[in-house]
Amino acid sequence: IAVNGWQRQRRTHHAVAALHELAKPTVAAVNGAAAGLGCDIALCCDFIVASDKYASFVMSYVMRGLIPDGGGLYFLPRRVGLQRAKEMIFSARKVDAAEALEIGLADQLAEPDQLIDAAVDLAPRMTVGSPDAVALSKTILDQTFELSSEQVFALGAQAQAIAYTTDQHRQAVDDFLNKRSK
Question: Residue 13: enclosing H or E segment and its boundaries?
Fold first, then answer.
């Protein structure tokens, strides 16, 4: 009953948060309809690669008398802006792959038979440097809309102090000084 729904919501929120808060960049591959919670799960990833022929996105909650409860209220405005997020949520309008790319909902389109390869190929391009530096940067970037510039600068200073102590930083400096940089 109500308690069961509340427990299900908590599990959903924990799963979405865990995916969003991974220390590594995440990539969603969408090859069909990402509707409701499916759209929310794609949105919680750092990057979305969509099938140019079959992908679509729809915040269909209001058609069921519900609200976007899987993170869409948080993630969608950050991807497409507040006004467009309102329009998509209030109208429950389906967005095709081409429009998704145009409005920033998707980051890349791929042929359906190349979708997984495109998503897998994107990941290493987003992790070219130190895993620690990527993780620290991601953690701060995911908070930037809620924080003041002073708070972001302070978090950046703390993260940089941590980054200075990593083996990756020391090795990169040594490589640079000895002309072995990539």
Answer: helix 2-20
